[in-house]
Amino acid sequence: MKYKEIYSLLIGVSLIGIACQKTTTAPAVSGVAALTVVNAIPNSGPVVPVINTSGAIMYFSSAQVVGYGGSYEYSPVAGNDTVYVVQDNSDTANIGPKVIGLMYYNILGLKKSGIYSLFLCGTDTTSPDYLFTTDTLAYYPPSDSVMGIRLVNLSTGSNPISINLEGNANGSEVGSLPYKGITGFKTYPCNSTTNDYFFVIRDAATGDSLTQFDFGSQNNGYGLVNIYNGGLLLTFRNVTIAVYGSETDMNNPLNTMLINNY
User: Fold this and answer.
1) Strand ranges (E), 2-125
2) In this predicted model, what pLDDT tens digit does every residue of 46-65 receive, in sequence order?
3) Partners of 77 in the β-ladder
4) Cβ distance 156 to 176 under 8 Å?
5) Helices marked H in 147-261 — which ranges?
């Protein structure tokens, strides 16, 4: 019996040691960030953001693409992440992050739980530009029934724009927003009695109407509280209205898009 007891005791101690070893050698979790990539590059096809690698990408068949006038949110591991962007019809076998002519290349210091936006813009794919922002979003308690809206000017070569709600004075929302200018998130009521917000984008100098964004057209008139954008209600959330395209290029006319944040 003594031998059996000693044998059982040794097995128990060994198992405890293994369990302790697993606990102490488990890799630390660094956490993730949120990175929304927006494609506002005129004449671009769908683009592929490549994140967390410094090597060439051989196959893009399963990669998430971002079409012109679209956006997509990625969840990279926090840290100094290599990010570069190519079109999905590129010769990907030879593409690496330091290849000359990429539409975007940078090493981003993304923090755990940080929220970021990368707006790709510029004249065209041969003259790309970008705006990278760290986003600070407000939390709205359930009692508020509101949403946050910000605006960004991604129209390369445009004059500063002004923005007003339909029926209000020119510039009542934004007096002058230059290229790559971006506002903070402004709070707007978003409940069952709020049917629409119709933003008019104008030339800040002349007051001429250039384009618009109509929330009512996004939801077939059911009211902001019932908008499903990406499957999510806009109440208690934050969104970005981006102005992109060109005032002079009829192939890429001035337009607007809605981007989900949080």
Assistant:
1) 34-39, 47-51, 70-74, 79-87, 104-110, 115-122
2) 888 888 765 656 556 667 88
3) 32
4) no
5) 215-218
User: CA-to-CA distance for 241 and 254, rounded, in angstroms?
Assistant: 13
Let me know if domain 29-135 sits in CATH 1.10.287: no
What would the pLDDT profile of 3-30 be if each residue is shown by its tens digit? 444 444 444 444 444 344 444 444 444 6
In angstroms, the Cα distances linking 149 to 162, 168, 182, 228, 240 are: 15, 17, 11, 16, 6
- The strand pairing partners of 131, in sequence order, are 119
Structure tokens at 122: 């510029």
Instruction: Quickly state the pLDDT bin for 36 (edges 50, 70, 90).
Output: very high
Identify which of 185, 190, 192, 163 has the alpha carbon closest to the alpha carbon of residue 259: 185
Do residues 185 and 138 make contact, with C-beta atoms less than 8 angstroms apart? yes
CATH 2.60.40.2890 residue ranges for the chain: 137-262
Strands of 255-260's sheet, edge to edge?
186-189, 146-153, 238-244, 255-260
Which residue, among 185, 27, 246, 224, has the nearest Cα to 174 in the 3D structure? Answer: 185
Residue 177 in 3-state DSSP? strand
Residue pair 152/120 in contact (Cβ under 8 Å)? The answer is: no
The pLDDT-based confidence of 249 (bands split at 50, 70, 90) is confident
The H or E element that residue 3 is part of is helix 2-25
Buried b (16+ CB within 10 A) or exposed e, 16-38: eeeeeeeeeeeeeeeebbbbbbb
CATH topology of domain 137-262: Immunoglobulin-like (2.60.40)
